Amino acid sequence: MKPPRFEYHRPSTRDEVTSLLAEHGDEAKILAGGQSLVPMLNFRLAHPGHLIDINHLEGESTEPEMNDRWVTFDPLVRHVGAERSAIVEEELPLLFEALRYVAHPAIRTRGTIVGSVAHSDPAAEIPAVLTALGGEMVARSARGQRTLHSDDCFVGPLVNGLEQDEWMEVVRFPRRGPGDGFAFEEFSRRSGDYALCGVAAVARPTPGGMSVSLAYLGVGVTPQSVEVSARPMAEYQHPSFLGELEHLVAAELKPYSDIHATGAYKLFLAVRLGTKAARRAVAMGVPG
Ligand SMILES: Cc1cc2nc3c(=O)[nH]c(=O)nc-3n(C[C@H](O)[C@H](O)[C@H](O)COP(=O)(O)OP(=O)(O)OC[C@H]3O[C@@H](n4cnc5c(N)ncnc54)[C@H](O)[C@@H]3O)c2cc1C
Questions:
Q1: Could you tell me if the CB of 137 is within 6 A of ligand 1?
Q2: Measuring from atom 52 of ligand 1, which residue has the nearest CA?
Q3: CATH number, domain at 16?
Q4: Contact 266/273 with Cβ under 8 angstroms?
Q5: Which of these three, 156, 174, 192, is where a domain ends?
Q6: Nearest residue CA, atom 16 of ligand 1?
Q7: Residue 37: CB within 6 Å of ligand 1?
């Protein structure tokens, strides 16, 4: 299968990308690592009239950067650049752990962190990590820049919160706070496959205990959040916690059945994986 016809653009500056989108936004697509877009073109699931290849932008950083609050990823930071980054290992242990579940090393060599967020696949790991941590993306168009919180980044399956003339300039994750703990768990049939269900957990200290934010992948049309209210650390390890999470998960998640698993089986996984992730995250944290 060959892709449909498109006009190819190869901008060398961010301003050129913005101008091209101002002109062709309603029928243009950005090409970053191409690990999702190129298969979609070849299967003719996408047929943009204009392809804007950002791989030749000049002076772009290929590694994550850090300021006093955020770890930031510019549009050409590949998964492999994040995986090998000491900043990510130290400041974003949740992303560091999740990255090894993203596809295979060859795909991670080309795929970008920003592309994974822009692609907005509800079965992908990085959108769930962004949601659990409460990260942000910066959208740019000829009208200027705006910031979207993770809650507004993911609108539906493969639909992000960008307008047609906008592109994603930066994705940023908050640096770890004192006492925070993290864990990522997922279940897939084979290593490197998309997971049937997965979960990113962030434990935060509260007076006398910890609260946990869970963000699930593979069980909804976008990453799905479940909040576990503050409690003493010992309660997470108690056998009754699994039953409590079962109630929370049943109230919040309505997993769909697909060719790989029934909704009921995904719910079963969500409870088991969520319990394991919450316990590991709490054990890594330091209570307030
Ligand atoms: C066999 C296989 C297995 C995979 N398994 C997994 C997996 O287990 N987990 C997982 O998370 N992913 C998986 N992927 C997808 C892979 O991680 C992709 O790399 C990633 O989803 C998209 O990143 P990319 O840079 O390649 O984006 P591209 O493919 O270039 O683009 C993807 C989409 O994002 C848009 N886009 C990209 N960058 C921008 C930008 N800066 N601004 C606005 N829009 C932008 C594009 O227009 C396109 O719509 C798999 C891919 C393959 C081929």
A1: no
A2: 35
A3: 3.30.43.10
A4: no
A5: 174
A6: 35
A7: yes
Last residue of a domain, one of 143, 174, 205: 174
* Beta-carbon contacts of residue 260 (< 8 Å; ≥ 6 apart): 189, 196
Q: What is the pLDDT of residues 12-58, one digit of tens each?
A: 999 999 999 999 989 999 999 999 999 999 999 999 999 999 999 99
Indicate whether 161 belongs to any domain: yes
Using the mean position of ligand 1's atoms as its centre, give its distance from the Cα of residue 15 in Å: 23
What are the beta bridge partners of residue 184? 200
Question: φ, ψ for residue 143 (rounded to 5)?
Answer: -85, -10
Contacts of 86 (CB under 8 A, 6+ apart): none
Cβ of residue 118 lying under 6 Å from some atom of ligand 1: yes
Tokens of 270: 């969500």
Distance 33 CA to ligand 1 centre (A): 7
- Total domains in the fold of the chain: 3
What is the rounded CA–CA span in Å between residue 157 and residue 160?
8
Residues 158 and 188 in one domain: no
What's the 21 CA to ligand 1 centre distance in angstroms? 19
Extract the tokens encoding 31. Answer: 């090409």
pLDDT per residue as tens digits for the range 75-90: 999 999 999 999 999 9
Pocket test for ligand 1, best of 116, 145, 154, 186 (most atoms within 8 A of CB): 116
82 ligand 1 Cβ < 6 A: no
Domain-located, residue 125: yes
- What's the token pair of residue 203? 């434990």
263-286 per-position pLDDT tens digit: 999 999 999 999 999 999 999 998
Domain membership of residue 2 (yes or no) is no
82 and 165 part of one domain: yes
Of all atoms in ligand 1, which is nearest to the CA of residue 36? Answer: 29
Measured in Å, residue 35 CA sits from the centre of ligand 1 at: 5
Whether 59 is in a domain gets the answer no
pTM for the structure as a whole: 0.97
- Same domain for 135 and 99? yes
Indicate whether 167 and 185 sit together in one domain.
no
